Q: What sequence folds into this?
């Protein structure tokens, strides 16, 4: 497999780097090679795109140009980043008027967008490595009941993301199954985590989060597995506030899919930095043993 | 209610194929919208599409902010629309207008300012840099802040920021 440019994104790189740690360890085991580049913010498809569309296209195109200059595809660890980079790539490939406009701006800083590379979400890459994941799993996760939350921007908008079924996603479930764990259906797999609306309307985000966590709890899942840092922060970081607000215990451990795979590979939790999770994962670690 | 034809043209231009014209107000977008559900339709994507298509600019922008900014950008409406209308693209146009008028929620100005000044929405900080080291991670490759700021300034983005 050719080397990818690693796009860890601002949230993972500069706030919850333990997620990058598990991703890098899993990539190493599976033979997925990466290298760094001085990428800026992707920028946020739910924030900056809504601030100024052309500015968002230009910043995204500049990031793509950095990877293009090395002729390498991007691997993203984040739904938001892969959503932005894929949307920008798609828009500029299909709209020559926009492409010329953005390239006129990029020319002033000595850059050019050509449209010569692809952007991959790391889950799509892992989906192509199911056999390798199976054979590298040394610790059986059998009996672990896992609820899956691929997150909106992993597969929507489907014409651009071209990853999974937009309303009945299976990629994440297949990876969880390859690890030997048991997927638990909870009926709200494609419901948004509520992160984006929380930026302006916290209460509405919490109401959506409640609906999600109620369903996960009712299904009897041992943990909820995610592949987006914004969703992770919403589920992991806001769970305590949710419990306070609704006077109800949830205590649902949140794992990034890379953490679940790494645990199955026998990589010690210490090396993954699971202690930095806000919602304790010790019950899971005990169960895995 | 008056139609603003310039605004209506911008809305129609969002879809080269003109699919928005085929909206027949079936309400599937609102039925599936997670925010409409928890706000008793205070956020209502169907209403936004109707007003946008008719060019009712005043109706859109004089309403409560949540009428535009309640969108959680989950793209569910895009997927369930029987006419393949990319609703989220239209909503982005509405939000861009709201930002330019200075009426968007504070978060959006703050995030844009952070990106403008740091080239990252979440800037690097010493405590996390140390944590990266402890986890055996390489330092994040530092972005060229100067270049990014220049790019955004050339495009006039700095004039949309607040407190500048």
A:
């Amino acid at each position: 497999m050719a080397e990818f440019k690693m796009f860890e994104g601002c949230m993972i790189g500069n706030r919850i780097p333990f997620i990058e740690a598990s991703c890098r360890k899993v990539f190493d085991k599976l033979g997925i090679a990466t290298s760094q580049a001085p990428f800026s913010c992707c920028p946020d498809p739910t924030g900056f795109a809504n601030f100024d569309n052309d500015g968002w296209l230009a910043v995204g195109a500049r990031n793509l140009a950095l990877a293009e200059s090395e002729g390498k595809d991007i691997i993203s660890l984040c739904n938001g980043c892969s959503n932005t980079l894929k949307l920008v790539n798609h828009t500029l490939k299909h709209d020559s008027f926009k492409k010329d406009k953005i390239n006129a701006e990029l020319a002033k800083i000595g850059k050019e967008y050509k449209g010569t590379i692809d952007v991959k979400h790391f889950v799509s890459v892992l989906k192509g490595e199911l056999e390798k994941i199976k054979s590298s799993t040394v610790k059986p996760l059998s009996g672990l009941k896992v609820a899956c939350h691929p997150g909106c921007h992993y597969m929507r908008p489907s014409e651009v993301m071209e990853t999974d079924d937009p309303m009945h996603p299976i990629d994440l479930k297949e990876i969880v199954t390859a690890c030997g764990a048991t997927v638990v259906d909870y009926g709200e797999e494609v419901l948004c985590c509520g992160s984006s609306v929380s930026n302006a309307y916290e209460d509405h985000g919490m109401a959506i989060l409640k609906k999600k966590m109620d369903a996960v709890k009712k299904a009897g899942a041992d943990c909820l597995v995610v592949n987006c840092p914004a969703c992770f922060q919403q589920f992991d970081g806001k769970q305590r506030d949710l419990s306070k607000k609704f006077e109800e215990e949830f205590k649902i451990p949140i794992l990034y899919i890379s953490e679940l795979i790494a645990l199955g590979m026998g990589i010690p939790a210490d090396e993954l930095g699971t202690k930095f999770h806000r919602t304790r994962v010790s019950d899971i670690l005990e169960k895995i043993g | 209610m008056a139609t603003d034809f310039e605004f209506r043209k911008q809305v129609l231009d969002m879809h080269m194929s003109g699919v928005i014209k085929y909206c027949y107000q079936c309400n599937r977008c609102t039925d599936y919208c997670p925010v409409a559900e928890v706000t008793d339709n205070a956020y209502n994507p169907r209403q936004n599409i109707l007003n946008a298509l008719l060019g009712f600019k005043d109706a859109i922008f004089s309403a409560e902010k949540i009428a535009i900014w309640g969108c959680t950008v989950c793209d569910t409406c895009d997927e369930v629309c029987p006419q393949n209308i990319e609703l989220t693209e239209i909503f982005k146009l509405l939000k861009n207008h709201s930002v330019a008028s200075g009426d968007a929620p504070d978060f959006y100005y703050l995030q844009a300012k952070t990106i403008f000044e740091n080239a990252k929405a979440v800037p690097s900080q010493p405590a996390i840099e140390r944590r990266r080291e402890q986890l055996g991670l390489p330092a994040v490759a530092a972005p060229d802040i100067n270049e990014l700021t220049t790019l955004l300034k050339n495009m006039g983005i700095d004039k949309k920021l607040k407190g500048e």
